[in-house]
Predict the 3D structure of the following.
Amino acid sequence: MREVKPKKFLGQHFLKDLDIAKQIADTMDGFPGVPIVEVGPGMGVLTQFLLEKDRDLTVVELDRDSVPYLNEHYPALRGHIIEGDFLQLDLGELYKDKFCVIGNYPYNISSQIFFKVLEYKDQVVCCSGMLQKEVAERIAAKPGGKTGGILSILLQAWYDVEYLFTVSEKVFDPPPKVKSAVVRLVRNDRQSLGCNGKLFKTVIKTSFNQRRKTLRNSMKPLLGKDCEAYSLPIFSKRPEQLSVTEFVELTNITAAFLSEGGTGGEKKIE
C-alpha cells in the first residue's frame, strides 16, 4: 500500500523524525498500565513506539486513507482503530476509568482537543503531544507574561502543564510555516475549584475579552461601572497577571456582588 498523502484540509503535517516520535511516546511512561488514546495517528510514526510499550492503545483517525494503512502496517492495532472525529467521541463510553491522551495534534483543532480533555478531567490523568509552538507557549504560560489566556487558566486549574521542547518545521512532511512544540499535562490534586465553576469560566472569558485593560475595566460587563469591589487591589491587575488561585478569588468576589443584588452589566453567565 502506498504511503498516505497529508491533507491540508485536515491540518496534517506528518512527522518524519523517529527520535522525536519516541520522545513524545515516552511522555506516557509515568503512567504505566493506564490505557492510551492516540489522536490522529496518520501513518503511525508515534503509534509504533506506543505499541512497543505493550499498553492498552486505541487510535482515533478521521482520514479514511490512513485507516487501511494502519491496519496493514500495524496488525496489533486491528480492533483498536476508531475511524471518526475525536472531538465528537463520547470518551466516557469508551473508558470507564482513567486514561491518557496523546498525539501529533492537527494545528487547526489543537485548542479544541484540550477543551475536550477538560470535559473528561476526572478521567484524563495525562495528556501530551505536539502542537503549534505559539499555542504550546500560551497554555504553559505563567502569570505575569503576555501569552496566557482563557485556555491556559482553564487547563492550569486542573493540570500541571510542562513545555517540554521545541520542534523544527524541517522534520515534517509537508513542513509547516511555524515551529512546533511538545507539551505534557499531568492531572493535579485539585478536586474542587472553591468557587462556582460556570461563573469561573465566565469571569475568565470576560476578563480576557479586554486583556490589555485592568480588571476594573474588563469586568464591567459583569459587575457594571460602579462596583464597590473595584477598590480591591486585584482589580488593578490585568488578566494575564492573575494565577488560577487569584481567578478563583475574583470569581468569589463576583459571586458575592451578584448575590447581594448587584446590578452588574449585561454579560450572562454561561
